[in-house]
Design goal:
three-stranded antiparallel sheet; alpha+beta; 101 residues; 2 helices; two-stranded antiparallel sheet; globular
Amino acid sequence: MADYLPGIRVLSQEEMQEVVREVILDENIPEIHFNGFVNVLTSGDILIILQRNGKNVAKLSASYTIAKTLSQKLMQIITDLEQRSGNTIMTSDQVIIAPES
């Protein structure tokens, strides 16, 4: 059974798996690959512009609360991956492209 917080419903592991399965099978939900982004703080939310190879491909708008929760959940996934693999994933700020000779 899912846990409940005031105003927020947290999905159980089984419910999460069902949501993922449904999304993967639903051809009406767009799939967007991105390899860059721009974050903008607005007066009421966070605007996230997704980019692929330097071109804008989508825009997301999230409340401050959801944006912070998303950042924490993503960090949790990456930390788990790093612990399981024994590798540290670099951020795009850490990746240095060697200059051409």
